[in-house]
Backbone:
């Protein structure tokens, strides 16, 4: 048996991208930056490589992976796009949108990556390093968020190493991610499009393209959710998370929004404000890093100030509600 090796840190330049592509072609795991969060990359066409993702993340195998592609033309070879999917892809790719569509007969995304489903989740990311990597690799790149299953998603290479060092071959370092919450997942499987996961593209932006609000997937908090990964408890730091806190218990860590603090702030273990000016995009970009930072203080509970559920606030609140859900 071999001892786990430290994961190599690859620079976000052409040499780093070339080495990342070489490792991926050899069936290895390479974490890579996207504009949302870091992905845990593996060759989506290779079941042995994809199996390494599930092992490294300790992810249940019923939870399918997103395949990342360089452009819409490449995506059309993997999935069948109806008029809704076409319109959404044209409007938001490259960008923080994932489309769940019926897989084509010729799809090269392996069964394991799709968790045996007849559908496939496709995304064309906008991050320049992700795009360079996809161009150099030349195959669909499976990429769940690069965290251990159920934990807080990574928005920096350091976050990836904290969760996965020694379990993956390398991390391509692109610095901090811009959006900070994952892609919006929309299913276009016939009939009306359904919003499976709020994310970096807002509900209002989707409605602007679709001409009406997407349906919201139901039963997200049941044992068998519509999106298999949408389990109630997720994004969880070690500390408990308490939402819409207007008063603080002594020793709690406080996660503020918009400057105003809860009563009892003087007794806080630690205080962070996601956006003193009340900017939801700034708050989304800081969310996962702030949860990790407050967790590291050892506080038993993170009390979160009220955050509006509009715009990007829907995705922020979704992640916080899952972080606060019973485990
Ligand atoms: O922003 C993102 O989407 C990041 C970056 C790396 O691209 N990736 C990401 O992947 O968040 P992951 O695996 O953490 O979340 C993918 C979500 C899961 O909830 C999964 O269940 C859902 O997409 N999903 C994947 N394939 C699906 C399918 N065929 N049907 C329904 N849901 C699917
Ligand atoms: Mg994830």
Residues:
């Amino acid at each position: 048996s071999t001892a786990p090796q430290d994961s190599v840190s690859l620079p976000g330049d052409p040499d780093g991208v070339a080495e990342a592509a070489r490792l991926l072609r050899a069936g290895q795991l390479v974490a890579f930056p996207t504009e949302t969060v870091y992905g845990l990359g593996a060759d989506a066409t290779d079941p042995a490589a994809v199996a390494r993702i599930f092992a490294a993340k300790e992810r249940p195998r019923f939870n399918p992976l997103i395949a990342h592609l360089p452009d819409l033309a490449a995506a059309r070879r993997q999935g069948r796009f109806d008029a809704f999917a076409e319109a959404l892809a044209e409007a938001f790719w490259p960008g923080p949108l994932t489309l769940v569509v019926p897989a084509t007969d010729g799809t090269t995304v392996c069964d394991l990556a799709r968790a045996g489903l007849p559908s496939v989740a496709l995304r064309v990311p906008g991050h320049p390093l992700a795009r360079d990597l996809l161009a150099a690799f030349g195959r669909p790149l499976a990429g769940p968020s690069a965290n251990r299953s159920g934990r807080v998603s990574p928005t920096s290479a350091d976050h990836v190493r904290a969760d996965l060092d020694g379990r993956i071959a390398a991390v391509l370092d692109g610095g901090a991610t811009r959006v900070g919450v994952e892609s919006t997942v929309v299913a276009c499987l016939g009939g009306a499009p359904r919003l499976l996961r709020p994310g970096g593209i807002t509900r209002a932006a989707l409605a602007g393209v679709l001409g009406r609000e997407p349906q919201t997937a139901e039963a997200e908090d049941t044992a068998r959710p519509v999106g298999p990964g949408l389990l109630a408890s997720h994004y969880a730091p070690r500390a408990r998370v308490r939402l819409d806190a207007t008063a603080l218990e002594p020793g709690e860590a406080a996660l503020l929004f918009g400057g105003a603090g809860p009563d009892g702030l003087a007794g806080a273990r630690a205080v962070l404000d996601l956006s003193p000016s009340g900017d939801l995009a700034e708050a989304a970009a800081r969310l996962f890093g702030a949860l990790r930072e407050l967790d590291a203080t050892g506080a038993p509970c993170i009390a979160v100030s009220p955050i509006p559920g509009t715009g990007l606030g829907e995705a922020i609140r979704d992640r916080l509600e899952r972080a606060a859900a019973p485990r």
